[in-house]
Amino acid sequence: MVHTTDSRHRYRRYPNLVAGVHFDAPDLCWVADLTYIRLKGEFVYLACVLDIWTRQCVGWHRGRGLESSLTLQALEMALQRRDVKPGLIHHSDQGVQYANTTYVNRLHEVGARISMAAVGNPYQNAHAESFMKTIKTKEILMNEYDSLEDARANIEHFLMTVYNGKRLHSALGYRPPDEFELMYYQQLLT
Length: 190
Known about the structure:
By secondary structure, the chain is α/β, with parallel strands linked by helices. It has helices at 68-81, 96-99, 101-109, 126-138, 148-163, 177-189; strands at 29-39, 42-51, 57-63, 89-92, 113-116. A five-stranded mixed sheet has the order 3-2-1-4-5, with helices on both faces. InterPro entries: Integrase_cat-core, RNaseH-like_sf, RNaseH_sf, Transpos_IS3, Transposase_IS3/IS150/IS904. Residues 22-184 form the Integrase catalytic domain.
């Protein structure tokens, strides 16, 4: 079995700031997680950042190892694509990829508040876990990728076109994330 979370580390552990909190706009809270992808003869990894309210995947990166650069590059993509304001809550598990100094410092640079699920409690990061299950069952397990580049192209298409653009969510009134967010901004203009 492949494990992606190593919470045995010396870095600071942050409290869970999202338990019982309701968010009502984009970019107030992001959740992050990572998973593995089986290629022919090896495993590679996928890190994603998800907006908890719109359910959009706002950042992702795949790579051959579980180094902190994997999650940091997914975070950087999200930061480049979104209009982040100080106070954003970034929620993850307590894995070393999210607790390390470089990642935490980057979050502090943009004024983000850090939130972490308790060790061994995936229910406290349920949005991210559910998202990863969807990617696994609807894309990763349905394909046999020949290479890292093959995985990158297929997963990027799934995330941008299928998941963000077409996949209906009951929590969003049976709308896809992109449409739900667009409706939110259109309502602000009226």
